[in-house]
Amino acid sequence: MLKNKTILITGSTSGIGLGIALEFAKQNTNVILNGFGSADDIEAAIKAVQQLTDGEVVYSDANMLKVDEIEQMIENANQQFGMVDILVNNAGIQHVSCVEDFPVQKWDDIIAINLSSAFHTVRLCLPNMRKANWGRIINIASVHGLVASPGKSAYVAAKHGIVGLTKEVALETAEVNITSNAICPAFTLTPLIEQQILNKAKVTGDKKSAIDALLSEKQPSKTFVEVKQLGQLAVFLCSDAAEQMTGTSIPVDGGWTAQ
Fold it and tell me: Measured between alpha carbons, how far is 248 from 246 in angstroms, rounded to an integer?
């Protein structure tokens, strides 16, 4: 279905981004990975994706804080593959603190990586998508793009912004074969959430009770969202069946936002 299409996924050397890359690789796409990590971890990610696709797999170390590096990443993709057909904005960081104590630099970095980088990738990829009359933009927002939680002001603000950007781009591209959608996961077992579990374990005494406490607070299913599920949903959003789905924000949250 998506063979020979090129997908760029920001923040894809681990966690949700890598899970999405693996699912698209099964569709024989070209895959552009991006993110940080040790040389061994990046090499392992590339190898895992390459094993699943007949397409090419490349890696960009572009820093999502730096507009010039984002621009160079897209230019390199266009030169190598012609265009980015599928754009997945997944890069994100987190910091937890009450508003009055929130470090200003942390706020700026979270807004830049979690929101502004998506604006830059979208603005740079859209011209070629318009020329091709085909493109898929998927923004990995969060349940926190739909509801708030204390202590996460920058993250909540950025993810609400991503949901708004998703809708706006959908309206601007509604008359061409380009869709713009957001996926809003709840607790998914990624390095970001793993750190929250470890922090909570210092209070609860052990990891299992920390997991139970974390999930019972918000997530009625009391089970983590699986990275693979998010990847499969992203693939669906690029299918013919989802051609009329645009501007949506899809919760994958075990019932969190149903409360």
Answer: 5
Distance CA 255, CA 167 (A): 23
Report how far residue 228's alpha carbon sits from residue 224's, in angstroms, rounded to the nearest whole number: 11
In the numeric block, the tokens 């959608």 are attached to 181
Residues serving a catalytic function are 155
Domains in the chain (CATH in brackets) are 6-188+225-254 (3.40.50.720), 189-224 (no CATH)
Interatomic CA distance for residues 180 and 217, integer angstroms: 31
Helices marked H in the chain — which ranges?
15-25, 39-50, 67-81, 104-111, 117-132, 153-172, 191-204, 207-218, 227-237
* Per-residue pLDDT of the chain in tens (259 residues, 90 and over written 9): 899 999 999 999 999 999 999 999 999 999 999 999 999 999 999 999 999 999 999 999 999 999 999 999 999 999 999 999 999 999 999 999 999 999 999 999 999 999 999 999 999 999 999 999 999 999 999 999 999 999 999 999 999 999 999 999 999 999 999 999 999 999 998 877 888 789 889 988 899 999 998 899 899 999 999 999 999 999 999 999 999 999 999 999 999 999 9
Q: What is the DSSP letter of 152?
A: B
CB-count exposure of residue 129 (10 Å: 0-12, 13-18, 19+)? buried
Q: How many residues does the chain have?
A: 259
